[in-house]
Target: 7-carboxy-7-deazaguanine synthase
Amino acid sequence: MSNTKTLPVLEIFGPTFQGEGMVIGKKTMFVRTAGCDYSCSWCDSAFTWDGSAKDDIRKMTAEEVLERLNFLAPHNFSHVTISGGNPALLKHMGSLVELLHAQNVEVALETQGSRWQDWFLHIDDLTISPKPPSSLMKTNFEVLDSIIEQLMEAGRTAHVSLKVVVFNEEDFLYAKLIHARYPQISFFLQVGNEDTGDEKETDDLVPKLLEEYEKLVDRTMQDRDMNQVRVLPQLHTLVWGNKRGV
Amino acid sequence: MSNTKTLPVLEIFGPTFQGEGMVIGKKTMFVRTAGCDYSCSWCDSAFTWDGSAKDDIRKMTAEEVLERLNFLAPHNFSHVTISGGNPALLKHMGSLVELLHAQNVEVALETQGSRWQDWFLHIDDLTISPKPPSSLMKTNFEVLDSIIEQLMEAGRTAHVSLKVVVFNEEDFLYAKLIHARYPQISFFLQVGNEDTGDEKETDDLVPKLLEEYEKLVDRTMQDRDMNQVRVLPQLHTLVWGNKRGV
Ligand code: SF4
Ligand code: SF4
Model:
């Protein structure tokens, strides 16, 4: 039944825009894979790993994923974002990346940096997003060091960014530590979003998120160690966040 | 009285974050110069050229500008954004760029692309923002072609972006034309902001801007000629827009 050449896919959708990080605003398709080696306290895609959506997982070959993308948006995309879960768990992701490149499509991918894959070297916009203390996860710096080192040695610096989500001051200090440890890598701070979209009315969501964003901006502006960073909100949550939920 | 080695400066402030375009979210200082060869119908900094702030213009040497920046934010910036008006009217801007680089500070600059200056070749993040029909200005394509050509010939493509502000469908078609004319240059679409911050209460500003942004996103998503573009709002207006004005 299980085919090691397939990918466990939960969602394929788009075209839409990338709401965060190094290519914020970019027109893109999304492919979301199932499975994660973390269980962050505030994970906004826990359904990818907590079993709640396990019946929705489809085992797809790279060719099938590409077919589905082309069916959804014929000739209407040139960028695909792969997210999870942790897509870096999937050794065979490399063939999808190859297929997309063969069609002149660029590929972005986000992972927390807990596992290396050789196909990292072919990702056009690779976001490594180590998780801060509020996630209750523990960063394995040996692995993270080795990932960043391999990317730099391969001359991929322009294709890589670090992103840390910040919910509180402790997270901010963690972000500083990450930025100081890898100063050559573009660094993005992102406002944490505690709203998981599953309860009450969210009329207050946008003002609340903008307020949190302003606080993070202010904190960063005061900090001389953070002169090179970029601070961003999640644009898709500002636009659509209050339309999800009930 | 007039000293050709000085720059007509209207504002120097920061550190704050860049709210738009190719380095959105980046910690930066702002230097705003006086004077513009355009008079866009919706110009949000008309005070730089309409005479209303002419008593606030200070003639400053590049050294004086740098001193002021260092006084405002000692050791607390490594990026400066020069805006106007049209800073490309100022031949002597080159010396400020040099001074900033000597202090390891990167320089961003925005201009509508109506004039060439040799120091364009040294700007780290150069945004060329041709004005769409709703501005009531007319693009001189001979000049614009020659600017883009010179930048490309000098290998500056990675340091340049095009940005078009869109208020309506006619503007969108103009944006498409610009993007098609210079496909090698990173292209940003930005939502127009008609609120000039000088009238009534602006409680509705954020929902209105987000709605306009969503419309521009939707329009772009449907358009196969716009697969490579990035669509962005003005983040500073979302955060602070409703705090300005009476
Ligand atoms: S690493 Fe990402 S997908 Fe995995 S638990 Fe954390 S937030 Fe969720
Ligand atoms: S080019 Fe810029 S500064 Fe000049 S009038 Fe137009 S919007 Fe205003």
About this structure: Residues 7-240 of chain A form a domain with the TIM Barrel fold (CATH 3.20.20.70). Chain A touches chain B through 37 residues (CB under 8 Å). Residues A 36, 38-40, 43, 45, 48, 84-86, 112, 131 surround iron/sulfur cluster (ligand 1) (CB under 6 Å).
